[in-house]
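Researcher: Next sequence.
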Amino acid sequence: DCLGRLHSTMGDLMGSPGNKVESKLEDAKKGRITVFAEPSEKDGDSMVELCWGATKLKSMDGPFGKSDGYLKIYALDPSARFVAETNVVNDTSSPTWRPLLVSMNRLCGGNENKPILVKCFDHDTSGNDDLIGSFECSLAQLMRPTGFETELIPPKKSHKSVGSVRVVRTPRIRRKPSFSQLLYEGLEISLMVAIDWTASNGAPSDSKSLHYFSPDARQQNAYETALTAVGSILLPYDRDHMIPAFGFGGRPPGASDVSHCFPLSGVPQQESVYGVQGLLAVYKAALGAVALSGPTMFSSVVQKAMDLERHSAKGPNKKYTVLLILTDGEIHDMTATQRLLARASESSPLSVIIVGVGSANFTSMEVLDGDGARKSMHTARDVVQFVPFSKFSGPEAGPRLAAATLAEVPTQVSDYFFMTSK
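Model: Next structure:
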């Protein structure tokens, strides 16, 4: 017999103090239920830190050019499966790459003697990178106390050397805590929201506008729909539910110039609101007060998130910030944004989720989140996740949207705390 029910989510459970949810049983005359969560002993992964260097790399741009080299690492099971790649080091034949953290499970299934494949490329801005050479080895060979260095085998049979690759520092193996372990140990996640107020969204009085202010209070516009859906997914992980809420690309009341980061409340001393309903209320109020303008720029809100993170870093518990940006299209400060994200990837406990609202061109968002982003932005870890909101509709839209929104954040969080641990 069913004694009663409890409806909850993993976000409610893992985001609550003590990883505990307690509630009265539904469909029952009496009774309460308490659910606890704790990480499995198998949670987490062993990570190996690989530090590579090279000597006398051949330039694929002619005799007077210098190589823009980087490495790609593949598992062999037995066919090659891509695992990771280093940063690009430009204009040198003897690069030393930044340390690369690789999952032992992904690299070799925990078997240090399993062969792996390493390919060295010369990066080309056109996207047609040239293969300089490759070699096979094992993690056990890389960890030899006597060191490791090998000649690259060129793609075409040749007796001329194309360079050699060596291990700069003996690889270290360390355990990386999982996202659930960090939450169990008291990690506090803070959500910050920034909303696009540029003119390309359309005037709130226009029924076709993404910011349409409907006289029917029950009708949500595109931004309200996205705020409700994505905010409800992320909010359970924010324990105090207080959310700093900002706009960008608009002209706040009393301002003569466009602002690229302004509190939606209109009060600098009251930047935060409580919960998703608080977000919706302050957004609705701003629709009648903030003038749409432009252009679309992200760097100011990214900088604000980094500043807020630094001010809230005090206390015994680990802290991490998730910046949710809702926008309708292209950005105009890509270089400045990339530079800030590269800094954040090294030293800030920050992830950025960009939600594309509407059906405009989101190429620049895909560039920030794409496979080549870490290479072009020189980031130490992945910090960006792009979610095209319009692609999620139909009866299964909720679970699919939740999966897309949270697809990368847990790994980004655990990567940061692993990278900054001693």
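Model: Residues 84 and 173 are 16 Å apart (CA to CA). The first helix runs from residue 10 to 15.
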